[in-house]
């Protein structure tokens, strides 16, 4: 998108933001199932219907706008649009405290990941209010961020010495703690980098890896959520939220939970299993043709290796980097929910 087109888009969204009955919304990646199956139907149909036709939505996505995921909440805070919906990990440069919302392997499945995120909700609310002048509407999961390798591995320990594309800052810290070389790289650059040997492995969701052809340039799949569940946060500018009456606020929140948050989380584990089957030759693949990657079974020892690293180094370092009392607040909320606590700095 060129500068003129972007400016016109911003102006149009800004105009919509000031219309009393219209919300301007920027959603997550347009090509992924979360947007296609949940976001788009909710914003364009379910919410306008739930409001009795009094609320309309102007919907686009950050990739359609030509802006980076890390710019979504920042631009929302500046009033360019009303609602932003993207992965919290994209915004960690604005607040290191956000890293605590998606800690690798504190949860072993989608239900545990949702429970951990629910426990973190007071932290999330405070971060978005103070950093982005925004109210959190709700959350939804991207798929668990697992490991694709174009190298033979038998378990997590075999990542030592390999170059691995990380899906977020805390994941990069975990990889470095495991003796890997963590690499920052745009999603679209990964297949070529795997093919040329620039990197050995990369972390992303199973469905994303399938749809983007990572199975063509990688051989082994380790279905361990080393990159966490990459939760997407939907937030609305505080001024726009406060301008709504209580009934409209309740309609927005309740309908979001019913149409996006609850079903997306409820289906996350089954979706992950199906996507892994698609990559590794399962009998039935809902995404298309099954592929033939080698499935590397994750073990309890792999999970314990990461959890020990989290408690002894990763979380204490994050607590110091985030500052304030974020570390202790994490212990008192997420730590209680997951049974993973550390000595906060």
Helix count equals: 13
Total DSSP E strands = 11
Mind telling me the CATH class of the largest domain? Alpha Beta
Q: Tell me the strand order in the biggest sheet.
A: 7-6-8-5-9-11
Q: N- to C-terminal separation?
A: 44 Å
Helix content: 40-55%
What would you say the CATH architecture of the largest domain is? 3-Layer(aba) Sandwich
Average pLDDT rating? 91
Based on CA atoms alone, the radius of gyration comes out at: 20 Å
Helix/strand class: alpha/beta
The biggest sheet amounts to: 6 strands, mixed
Total number of domains:
2
Instruction: Provide the CATH topology of the largest domain.
Output: D-Maltodextrin-Binding Protein, domain 2
The fraction of residues assigned to DSSP E strands is: 15-25%
**Oligomer category:** single chain
Principal-axis shape: globular
What low-confidence regions span 5 or more consecutive residues with pLDDT below 50? 1-20
The CATH H-level superfamily of the largest domain is Bacterial extracellular solute-binding protein, family 7
Order of helices and strands: HEHEHHEHHEEEHEHEHEEHHEHH
């Amino acid at each position: 998108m060129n500068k003129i087109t972007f400016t016109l888009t911003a102006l149009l969204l800004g105009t919509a933001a000031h219309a009393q009955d219209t919300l301007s919304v920027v959603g997550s990646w347009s090509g992924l199932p979360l947007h296609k199956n949940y976001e788009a139907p909710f914003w364009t149909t379910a919410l306008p219907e739930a409001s009795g036709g009094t609320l309309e939505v102007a919907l686009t996505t950050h990739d359609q706008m030509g802006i980076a995921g890390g710019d979504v909440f920042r631009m929302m805070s500046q009033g360019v649009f009303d609602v932003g919906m993207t992965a919290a990990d994209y915004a960690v440069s604005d607040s290191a405290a956000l890293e605590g919302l998606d800690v690798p392997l504190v949860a072993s499945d989608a239900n545990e990941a949702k429970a951990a995120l629910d426990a973190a909700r007071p932290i999330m609310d405070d971060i978005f209010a103070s950093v982005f002048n925004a109210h959190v509407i709700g959350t939804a999961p991207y798929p668990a961020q697992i490991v694709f390798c174009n190298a033979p591995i038998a378990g997590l320990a075999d990542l030592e010495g390999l170059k691995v594309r990380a899906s977020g800052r805390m994941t990069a810290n975990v990889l470095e703690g495991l003796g890997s070389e963590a690499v920052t790289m745009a999603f679209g650059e990964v297949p070529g980098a795997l093919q040329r040997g620039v990197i050995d492995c990369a972390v992303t969701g199973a469905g994303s890896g399938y749809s983007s052809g990572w199975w063509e340039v990688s051989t082994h799949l380790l279905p361990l959520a080393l990159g966490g569940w990459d939760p997407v946060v939907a937030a609305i500018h505080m001024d726009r939220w406060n301008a709504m009456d209580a009934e409209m606020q309740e309609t927005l929140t309740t309908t979001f939970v019913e149409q996006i948050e609850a079903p997306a989380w409820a289906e996350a584990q089954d979706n992950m299993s199906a996507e892994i089957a698609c990559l590794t030759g399962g009998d039935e693949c809902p995404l298309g043709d099954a592929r033939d990657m080698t499935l590397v079974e994750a073990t309890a020892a792999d999970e314990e290796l990461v959890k020990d690293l989290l408690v002894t180094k990763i979380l204490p370092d994050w607590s110091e980097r985030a500052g304030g009392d974020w570390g202790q607040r994490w212990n008192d909320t997420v730590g209680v929910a997951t049974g993973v606590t550390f000595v906060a700095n």
